[in-house]
Amino acid sequence: MGFHFMTTFYNLFQTMVGMTPTQYRNRVQELEKSKTASFYRDSLFFHILLK
Fold it and tell me: What is the rounded CA–CA span in Å between residue 19 and residue 24?
């Protein structure tokens, strides 16, 4: 499925997802950074705990 006009995709995406594609991409990147930070923080905690 493709969109002939970018605005059609943009408007449909915003209606379906509740945010713009750019907002969605930024949110996913924030979550990935948070998940990575949590992983390293938890790994450090368990490393200290196991000593």
Answer: 6
| CB contact set of 33 (below 8 Å; sequence gap of 6+) | none
Task: Give the other-Cβ count within 10 Å of 31's Cβ.
Answer: 10
Which region, left, alpha or beta, applies to residue 18 given φ > 0 means left and ψ of -120 to 50 means alpha? left
Q: What is the pLDDT of residue 7?
A: 93
Mean pLDDT of 20-42: 84
The model carries a pTM of 0.64
Write the CB contacts of 14 (distance below 8 Å, at least 6 apart in sequence): 20, 21
In the predicted model, what is the mean pLDDT of the chain? 82
